[in-house]
Amino acid sequence: MEKLRLRDFLSYQFLSGLIFSPDGRHAAFVAATAKADESGYDRNLWLFNVETGALRQLTFGGDASACEWLDARTLLFSAMRDAKLSERTEKGEALTSYLTLDIDGGEARPFCTVPAKVSRVRALDSNRFVFLCEFRMDGPDLSALEGEAKNSALEALRKEKDYEVLEEIPFWRNGVGFTNRKRKRLYLYTRSTGELSPISQPDADVGSFGLWDGCVLYVSCAFEGKMERTNGLFLYNPAANSTRTLIEQGQFNIREVGMLDGEIVFFASRMQTYGLNESPALYALRDGKPALLWAKDEAPGSNVGSDCRLGGGQSILFAGGWVYYTVARHTGTALVRVNAAGREEVLLPPEGSVDCFDLAGETLLFVGMRGMRLQELYALQAGEVRRLSALNERIVAEKTLSKPEPLFVPSDDVTIEGFVIKPVDFDPARRYPCILDIHGGPKTAYGSVFFHEMQLWANEGYFVVLCNPRGSEGRGDRFADIRGCYGTIDYDDLMRFLDGAIAAYPQIDPQRLGVTGGSYGGFMTNWIIGHTDRFRAAASQRSIANWISKFCTTDIGYYFNADQIQATPWHDPEKLWWHSPLRYADKAVTPTLFIHSDEDYRCWMAEGLQMFTALKYHGIPARLCLFRGENHELSRGGKPCHRVRRLEEITNWFAAYLR
Question: Where is the Peptidase S9 prolyl oligopeptidase catalytic domain positioned along the sequence (predicted)?
Answer without folding.
Answer: 450-658
